[in-house]
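Dear support,

I submitted the protein below through the web form. The confirmation email said the job was done, but the results page showed an empty box. After a refresh the structure appeared. I'm attaching both so you can tell me whether what I see now is the final result or a partial one.
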Amino acid sequence: MRLPKSCFLLLRRLILILIIPKALAQYQFLHSRCGNTTVTPNSTYQSNVNTVLKSFSSINLITYGYYNFSAGTDPNKVQAMALCRGDVPPGACRLCVQSSASALPQVCPNQKQAFGYSDNCIIFYSNNTIFHTLTVVPRWGLYNKRDVSNIPVYNVTLSKLMNRLLKNASSGDSQLKFATGNTNLTSNQTLYGMIQCTPDISKSQCVECVHNISGLLVPKYFVTSNFTAAGARVITPSCNYRYEVYSFNGNVSDVDTPLAPPPQLSAAPGSDKSNASAQARKSRKSRTIAAIVIPIAIVGAILLAAGICLLYKKKMAHSLSKFNKEDIETLQSLQYTLAALKAATEDFSEDNKLGEGGFGNVYKGKLPDGQAVAVKRLSKNAAQGDVQFKNEILILAKLQHRNLVRLLGFCLEDEEMLLVYEFVINTSLDLFVFDPVQRASMQWETRYNIINGISRGLLYLHEDSGLRIIHCDLKAGNVLLDVDHNPKIADFGMARLFNIDQSQAVASKIVGTYGYMPPEYVLHGHVSVKSDFFSFGVLVLEIVSGQRISCFQIGVNPENLLSFAWKNWIQGKAWNLVDPTLKGASSTEILRCIHIGLLCVQHNLADRPTMSSVGLMLSSESVSLQIPSQPAFFTKSSTPSNAPPQGTTSD
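What the results page shows now:
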C-alpha cells in the first residue's frame, strides 16, 4: 500500500532528527560585510545582538520568507531582519535564515552592524532603524565575466525586462514584493531577471531602492560602451536584483529544518587524570550502548510512524471517495481534521462568523501555530453542495497568484464539508464600495488598484496558469481585500476548467448571479472567457459608481446601470455615472475605466476585448480604445427588461 506524501515527510523528519546532525552542514556566505564599529564583548549591545539572532531559531509560524526582530532600548537597541528569495520554499528558507543567524557572529564578531548574503537569503542587523526604512548600504555586487555580442540590443532588452519586473515587484503586498521573468534575446537565447524588495517598504521606496542601486536598471559597473556583462546581481538590505542568460530561480528543493544539536559541554576545571580515565571509560560505555539502542529506536520510530500513517490513510481514503483516483494524492496533503477546525473556530461560534452566502457560512479561525484562517462551512442541504466543494478544491489546489485567494486545505468528515482559506482581513469588496460610509473613504487610487488587480487575476486564470479557468461568478462579493486593499478573487465553486485550446462550452444548468451573467449564458448556456469579461465590465462600472447593478439608482427613479452608463456615455455625460465622492479624482483614468467597462459588457461576445488587452488599456494611456456598441440588456425605459430579477442566484 502506498503511503501518502505527509507520511513520507514524517518519516523523513524522523530520519533527519535521529541520524543527520545539523553540524554536518557547514554554512558559508557568498558575501558578508561587517560594520566598522566594534563593541565590547559581553556588553549590553552584544547581548541584544545575540538575542535577536537567536530569535531566528523560532520562525516556523511565518511562511512568506521575511522575518524581523528587535531587542533592547536605545542606545543599545538592535534591529535584525532576514529575507529569503521569493521562490525559495518555506523549509529551505528557514534553514538558510537559521544557518545565517548562527554564522554571522562568527564572521563578524562584536560588530555593531553586519550583513550576510547567500543564494537563498540575506540577513542584516544594525543599531539603526531598518524596519519600514529604505536601506541601500551596505551593498554588494557580482557580475558574469562573459560578454554579450550585440550590446545595444542587449541593453534595450535588459531595460525593458527589468522595468517590467520592477513594476510587478513593487506592486506586491505586505508579505511579498518579488518578481521574476524572462524575454527572448535571440531566437535561441533567453534573458532571465529577478527583482525583490523587503515587503515592509512601500511601493515608491521599492522603486527608489532599485533605481538607486542599478543606475536606472542598466548597471553602470557592468555595462559600458564596449563591454556588457551577460549577468549581474546587486544586493542590499532593502532590495536586490539579478539578471542572467541562464535560468537561476525556482530551482530550490524544500527541506524540513533540522533541530539544533544539543549544546557541547566543556570539561570542568581542575579535573585530574583519574577523573579523565573514568570519563573515558564512561564515554566508551555510552557509545557502546548508543550503538545498540539508537538503531533500535530509529527502526521502532519508523515502524510506529508507518503504522500511524497506514491507519490515517485508511480513514482519509473513505473521506476522499468523492474524488477521482488521480486527484487523491494531490488532496491528501491538504486535509484538516474536523476536531482541529472546530477548535480553531471555537466550534463555529457566532462570534467568529465572518459572513454567509448561498452555499454556507464563513468563520474566522486560528490554528495552533497562530495562523489566522477563514473556514467556509458548506450547508449540508445546499443544492449541488458536493459539486461546489469538489470543484473549488480541485481548482484552487492548482493555483497560486497574489490576486487569487489561497486555499490552505479542506475537511470532509462526519458529513461536514469545510474549506480552509488564508484569512483576508478586509473581507469583501461589496462591504466597502457599496457602503455609504466606507465608500467615501475608498478613494480613486484604491479603486483603480482593485480594478487592475482583478484584471491580473483573471488574466492568470484565463491564460497564464497553465490551465484555462472560467470563474463564472465574478462579482463584488467574491473579491476579497487584504490589509492594503489588494484584491483577491475568491469562491470558485461555479468555476469551469477548460482545456487550454478550448474556447467555449454549453452549461446544462444556468447557475450564477443575475446582472453579472452575459446574455449568451443566460439565454443559451454558452460559457467562455468572454463570460468573465462581461462580469468584469459590470464590476468596473459598479466600482466607478459605488452602486450595485441590482439596485442602481440616480435621482428618484431606479435605473439599469448598463443603460444609464451607455446613454450618458454617448451623450458625452459619462461623469454622471461617477460616485460623487470621487469628484476630485483623476477624470482621465475614471472616464477610461467607464469606457473599458462598456467595451466588456457589449452584447456580442466577439466585440469584447481580451483580458490581456484590458491590462494594456489600464496600464497605458497611449493604447487607443475602440468605440463600444450598445451593451447587453439595454433598456430605453427606466426599468429593467424581462431578464430575471438581479441580485439572486438561480439553480
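Response: this is the final, complete result; the empty box was a page-load delay. The domain at 25-126 is CATH 3.30.430.20 (Killer Toxin P4; Chain A).
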